[in-house]
Amino acid sequence: MLSRVDFLIGCGCVKNFRYVQWFTGLGCLLLAGHVGAASSQPSSPAAFFEDTRIWDLRLTVSPGDHDRLDPGRGRGFEYVPATVTLAGQVLERVGLRYKGNSSFSTARGIPKKSFKIDFNRFEKGQTFLGLAKLNFNNNVLDPSQLREVLAYRLWRQLGLPASRTTFARVTLQVPGRHDGQLLGLYVVVEQVNRGFLRDRFGSDQGLLLKPEGGLEMPYLGEVMAPYERVYVPKTETSSALIQRLMDFTRLVHRADDATFSARVASFVHLGDLARFTAAHVALSHLDSFLLRGHNFYLYLPEPGGRLTWLPWDLNSTFAGHRSAGSPEQQYDLSVTHPFAPGHRLLERLMSLKSFRDPFQQALKAMAEGPFSVEGMADEMAVLRDAVEATVREDPYTDYPAFVEHFEPIKEVPAKHTPGGFRVIRKPLLRVFMTRRHASMRAQWAGERKGYVPGRGRRPGRSGKP
Description:
By secondary structure, the chain is an alpha+beta fold. The chain contains 17 helices and 10 strands. Among the domains are: 1-36; 49-196, no CATH class.
């Protein structure tokens, strides 16, 4: 039988031996993972975060605590105790809460909510393989099931710090209500927290921020409190760390061009931020710091250090943000001005050759490498093989809509799911890849200007992310 690598070489999709080596190695790794999936238990976070594995997760919650999960009117998401059986390990009195904004409101009428697990919320020191928290995302806004996994994978391929992912098949036990009810396929996303910082940066003693609505990266004066409200610290603050943030935002907004050019590299890893921005642009990810000023973390490791940007909430990648413009506009996102007016940091950085050139180089390298049409098609095929059986049985997923992301199919009526849940349509991944590459090539050739996103009203929030 002709192997997949032989087939790709024969059709011209694999253009060099280095790529063949990578693909062959990936195939062997995936095969090894699938062989052990049914019986083995992960022994480390690295073994758990294999993004072609589907781990079994069983949630057991009392009826009263299950009621408390729903935020109701005027209440935020609340942690309740639950028993969790994950990848064969049983953990008692684990903290469980719902999470999400649009993913939560879309799933309002069904039990398949996105949720966060805090293993040491009620039992101090309890972890799962050393991990304190995990996020389980329900994918109700992504019929392809793969946007987040593909996007986080791309970030890691660029050598940038980013969360790891895997999949879970989730069932729910609520005595008298749900008897091992199948909720379906979830994407599991590593939490950005102290453990993440120690693993990626060697220290968790810096300042971790999760800005909300911070498109302008505003300078807010020389008092600490306004920065804490806008930049939302996730670790303890100190006057020295906040002062570094103040100095940076003052440079962005108050410095003349010569001073900004001379000093910005002392505050920012320009090459890393160029690649971080290029990943957003390739993926047409506009529910992000490009347009909304959110869905990212900032980490400042020490008072005199440089800021690092970290991605978050990638389920609207691949032109999937409904309020950012039509799919056709997002396919055509500008490769020279991909951000909204008022993004003072990117406006100033794009005027600097020391940022603009690495940004364009990163974008072109992605288009020829990990983000190539052929490379992404291979990754999509591998991930499809891994999840398809679980998607088929998922009561809250439209299986034909899933298949259509990978191949054209005859029109099939949408599946009617319990609770009147309506399947959300998103731009097809295979269409996105073709259209996005065509647009980038045309823009680089000077044949097209590209779409510059505008700032519009942001949809209402329905809960804590």
